Amino acid sequence: MTGDTGWASFAGRIATDTVECVDVRAEPERLATGTWFVVADFEGPARAWRFAQVRDADAVPNAGAPADTWHGPARDAWTSSMDQAGYEAAVSRVREHVREGDVYQANICRVLSAPLAAPSGTTPSGKRPSTEPDARALAARLAAGNPAPHAAAVHVPAATGLDPVWVVSASPELYLSVRHEPGTGTVVESGPIKGTARTPDGLTDKDRAENVMITDLVRNDLQTVCRPGTVEVTSLLAVEEHPGLVHLVSRVRGTLSDDVARSGELWRHLLDGTFPPGSVSGAPKSSALRIIGELEPAPRGPYCGAVGWVADGEASLAVGIRTFWWADGVLRFGTGAGITWGSDPTAEWHETELKAERLVALASEHR
């Protein structure tokens, strides 16, 4: 297995040898057959790559690089698109928008970045010098130090001649699953996360109110693509424990309407109806996106977008949180928090630090 021809991993699948790339919005019908790995940027672009080899990870010897082969940036090399004062000012501005009736909640994020040149030496195959960092090695380090239910990695080097991508995610959050259930139809499900603390005792009434608000938004999104009367909240405010923190998670599902499920443009309908994910935008979504555009100085890219696979009419896509991406010699990581009228600016800043500290430490050089 070589790293210079492309590699991807998600939900127990390992893919190698990239064959082609498509624009999902321009050619959604291409995803109807075969296995595709998808990365959608928060700002809208969505691409999918098809690989020559897709196998169960258990059947692939040495499926990933050893975790100790990752060489990340120095711990003190990271900078933030917003410092604490700037972030707290943005939180205060969102609270003003809430008071003015423009929005109920908006997710405000910042992007951490650190220079990271490609390592010297050769690819794992030994065929030619490496030109990009080894995404497999970072994925292995995150899997060992921060296992996540929706962990994913997609790396298509520029050397392939296709659109390049370099994303490694330890996402705990389901954006969309699509599967066929006999006797029911094509079922779509989402698992929005809102509410984060170090321990369950740290979760607040504000966290619970925010989760209910976003769960309702996700329910409304799914109603745009589902049969009337089929959308339901199957779990509300469940506490999930993850390394170093806990989340409040809800579940919403519905049955796709026949005209959406059978359409060659299924993925255009799904993205138009539900993207970007409600948990990382806000409510109402259109107002939240406008406010995010005004307040955030750096684009989110694949962070807060989506990453996952689509295969023969079924799919599993994660929300692109707890996500690293690399381009132009820079490694980036996003972190954010949902802001409501009940938000304390300093507490929200600390929540962004909590979400970032473990993963950024894992991705940094240990010196």
Provide a descriptive summary of the structure in words.
The chain is of the alpha+beta class and 367 residues long. The chain has one domain: Anthranilate synthase, CATH 3.60.120.10. 24% of the residues lie in helices and 35% in strands. The chain has helices at residues 84-99, 135-145, 205-223, 258-261, 266-274, 285-295, 345-363; strands at 7-10, 13-23, 35-40, 46-56, 79-80, 105-115, 150-156, 165-171, 174-181, 185-191, 193-197, 232-242, 245-255, 282-283, 306-311, 314-319, 323-327, 330-339. It has an 18-stranded antiparallel β-sheet that branches. Helix 1 (84-99) crosses helix 7. The longest helix has 19 residues, at 205-223. It is globular. It starts with 6 loop residues before the first strand and ends with a helix. The mean pLDDT is 93.
The largest sheet, given as strand count, sense and whether it forms a barrel, is: 18 strands, antiparallel
CATH domain topology:
Anthranilate synthase
- Taken together, the total number of domains comes to 1
- Rough outline: globular
Number of helices: 7
Mean pLDDT: 93
Rg result? 20 Å
Beta strand count: 18
Structure summarized in a few sentences:
By secondary structure, this protein is of the alpha+beta class. The chain has a single domain (7-363), classed as Anthranilate synthase, CATH 3.60.120. Helices cover 24% and strands 35% of the residues.
List keywords for this structure.
alpha+beta, 18-stranded antiparallel sheet, globular, Anthranilate synthase
Write the layout of secondary structure elements.
Blueprint: E1 7-10, E2 13-23, E3 35-40, E4 46-56, E5 79-80, H1 84-99, E6 105-115, H2 135-145, E7 150-156, E8 165-171, E9 174-181, E10 185-191, E11 193-197, H3 205-223, E12 232-242, E13 245-255, H4 258-261, H5 266-274, E14 282-283, H6 285-295, E15 306-311, E16 314-319, E17 323-327, E18 330-339, H7 345-363
Helix pairs in contact: 1-7
